[in-house]
């Protein structure tokens, strides 16, 4: 019995860069919906943390530097007890001729390159700057922790 039909598969052309962008967006949305919850307590289960640097990402809009430092004070202490060197990312002033928010974000991104991990405080996903920092940290393979 011979083949009485020939089957062909349609060819689909895919724009690889567009596909990659969609996959990244899907991944980020999934992370925002249900990020893996790692807390300070889980830091103890990590490999040796001595001499490892970590920075804290937290919503800062509308807060003074004093308020920001007070909000993170207990966390800084816990991270230091776990052996991390907490890199200070509470910047004092932006140059007069620059957009303050963009300047502060650029400095935070610069510091992500200097640390081993980034700890995201509660409500980070609601703050544009924190979401951008998260994207940078994840895309560049930094260890990421979240406040429960």
Amount of beta strand: 5-15%
The spatial strand order of the largest sheet comes to 2-1-3-4
Q: Would you count the extended β strands for me?
A: 4
Run of helices and strands: HHEHEHEHE
Number of helices: 5
Spans of at least 5 consecutive residues whose pLDDT stays below 50 are: 32-38
Indicate the percent of residues in helices: 40-55%
Largest sheet: 4 strands, parallel
- Name the average pLDDT: 78
- Give the radius of gyration: 21 Å
List keywords for this structure.
4-stranded parallel β-sheet, alpha/beta, 148 residues
Q: Can you characterise this structure?
A:
This protein is of the alpha/beta class. Helices cover 43% and strands 12% of the residues. The longest helix has 18 residues, at 16-33. Residues 32-38 have low confidence and may be disordered.
Q: How would you summarize what this structure contains?
A:
This protein is of the alpha/beta class and 148 residues long.
């Amino acid at each position: 019995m011979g083949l009485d039909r020939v089957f062909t598969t349609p060819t689909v052309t895919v724009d690889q860069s567009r596909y990659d962008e969609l996959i990244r967006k899907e991944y980020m949305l999934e992370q925002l919906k249900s990020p893996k919850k790692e807390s300070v307590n889980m830091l103890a289960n990590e490999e040796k943390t001595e001499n490892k640097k970590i920075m804290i990402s937290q919503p800062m809009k509308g807060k003074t530097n004093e308020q920001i430092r007070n909000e993170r004070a207990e966390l800084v202490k816990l991270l230091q007890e776990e052996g991390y060197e907490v890199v200070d990312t509470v910047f004092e002033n932006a140059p007069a001729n620059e957009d303050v928010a963009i300047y502060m974000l650029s400095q935070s991104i610069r510091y992500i390159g200097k640390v081993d991990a980034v700890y995201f405080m509660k409500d980070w996903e609601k703050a544009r700057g924190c979401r951008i920092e998260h994207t940078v940290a994840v895309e560049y393979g930094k260890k990421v922790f979240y406040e429960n």
